Amino acid sequence: MTDQQVVTRFAPSPTGYLHIGGARTALFNWLYARGRGGKFLLRIEDTDRARSTPEATQAILDGMSWLRLDHDGDVISQFERANRHAEVAHQMLDAGHAYKCFSTQEEIAAFREQARAEGRSTLFQSPWRDADPSTFPDAPYVIRLKAPRDGETVIEDQVQGAVTWKNDQLDDMICLRSDGTPTYMLAVVVDDHDMGVTHVIRGDDHLANAARQILVYNAMGWDVPVFAHIPLIHGPDGKKLSKRHGALGVEEYRAMGYPVEGMRNYLTRLGWSHGDDEVFTTEQALEWFGFDGIGKSPARFDFKKLENICGQHIAMTDDAALLAEIEDFLSATGQPKLTGGQQEGLSRAMYCLKDRAKTIPQLIEKAYFVLADRPLELDEKSSKAIDDVSCSILIELTPQLQNASWERETLEAVVADVAERNGTKLGKVAQPLRAALAGRAVSPSVFDMMLVIGRDETIARLTDATS
User: Fold this and answer.
1) Average confidence (pLDDT) per 10 residues, the chain, 467 residues
2) Into which family does the record put it (predicted)?
C-alpha cells in the first residue's frame, strides 16, 4: 500500500448540522490526503431515510465549504448504492461466507433470555448457520456474515496500536435485512472499497465496528485499509462534548465570527500536536500532519484557547483576506453588505484594527469609527465622556488641528499641548476625543483614527460633538 495514492474520506450522516467533532474528522482526513498529494472524498451516509434530510446535507456541505475543505469528485450517496451493497451480500452468500437466517425476532429474544438465565453469552448463534438448504422454509430471511468462531481478529490501528478481539465475541452480523435493504456495517465496507479508500480516519467510537467490518473485507478478498481511530472531543469538564458545553455546530462558530483559519488551526490542535507549536498556517499543517502526532486521550475543547488562536490569526491575516472574511461573516449572519466607502475605510484602517480582536464581531465593533456615518451615535460611556469641561477642551483643540500637518507626531504634540494648557494629562483629553471620533469606548488609538478618517472628517466629528 505504500506505493498507492492516499485516498481518505469523510462520511457523515445527514441528520443535523455539521458537528464540531465531525468537522475535525473531516479536517484530519483532508490534511492527511492533501499533505500527501492524495484524494479526499465525501460520502453522505443517508440510509436512515426517516432522519436524513436535504437541509442537513446542505448544512454539512456549507460547513465544509466555510472550513475550505474541498473534496474530489462527486458527493457519493450511500442510499443510492443499495443495489451494489445487496450484490456483495449475495456474492458472500454464494461463496459460503454468509448464510440465510430465518430466525424471527421472537426466537432471537427467547435465545437471549435463556442464555441470560443460564449465565451464557447472549451473542446470538443462529441455528441456520450450517443448515441444509433443503430445510429452508418459504419465509423471510436475513443474510448473515459467517464470522469465525475461534482465533482472534487484530487491527494494527495507527492511533490506538494493536487492538485484539476474540472471535467468539463477534456475532454473525446481519448484512442484508429481510426486506432486501443493506445494513450500515455492510454498506460502509462496500463503499470504502469501491471508492478506493486506503486510509479510514474516524472517531474511536467506531473502533468496535472495525473488527466486524474487517470480516467483510476478508470474506470478499479485499485489501483492508489502514485504520486510524481518533479520540473524541470532550468538554472542559472531561465529559463528551454536548450542548451543555456551548456551541456544537460549525455554523454556530461561523455565526459567532471566529475566523476560518483560526478555527482550522484550533481544530487541528484538538488531539494532534507538533512539538510546542500552537499557532500555524494551513501550509504548515499540511506539511506536519501525521498519525504520530495524534494522542490516545480525548481532547478537551477550550473556548479561551480557541479565542487566543483566532486572535493571533486575525493579527497575521493579510488585509484583503480579512476584508473578505468580514464580508463573508456579514453575509452568513444576514447583515447588510459593506458599501464601497466602507470597504475603502476598512482597508485603510485594517492596520490598527487587527490587534487584540479575537473574533470578526470584535473587529467590526472596533471599526465602528470608520463604518458609521455622521453624526455618530454615541454609546452610553462615550456620552458621559463629553461633559462641559471636556467639551471646552475639544472646542479649543479643533482650530489647532485645523492648521496642523496631518502626521502622527504633530497630532500627538498638538493634543499634548492642549492638555498641558488645561492642566491635565493626555489621557484625560484622549477620552472625550475618542468619544467624538468613534462614539465608542473601544476603538483604535485616537491618533490612528485621525490618520484613517483624515482632517476634514476629524474636524466635522469634533464639531458635531461640541455643538
Assistant:
1) 84 90 97 98 91 90 96 96 98 98 96 92 93 96 96 96 94 96 96 98 95 96 98 89 79 95 97 95 97 94 95 96 96 95 96 94 96 92 90 94 94 94 91 94 93 96 93
2) Belongs to the class-I aminoacyl-tRNA synthetase family. Glutamate--tRNA ligase type 1 subfamily.
Binding residues: 243
Whole-number Å distance between alpha carbons of 216 and 219:
5
Amino acid at 304: K
The answer to whether 412 touches 448, Cβ cutoff 8 Å, is no
One of 39, 243, 304, 358 is an active-site residue; which one? Answer: 243
Binding-site residue ranges for ATP: 243
Task: Pick 380-466's CATH classification: 3.40.50.1240, 3.20.20.140, 1.10.10.350, 3.40.50.150.
Answer: 1.10.10.350
Q: Let me know if 337 is a catalytic residue.
A: no
375 upstream amide cis, omega within 30 of 0: yes
CATH architecture of residue range(s) 81-230: 3-Layer(aba) Sandwich (3.40)
DSSP 80: G
Q: Beta 233-234 vs 7-10: how paired, if at all?
A: unpaired
Query: For residues 381 and 297, what is the distance between their CA atoms, to the nearest angstrom?
Result: 47
- Residue count of the chain: 467
- Output phi, psi for 75, to 5 deg: -75, 130
**Of 282, 221, 224, residue with least CA distance to 4:** 224
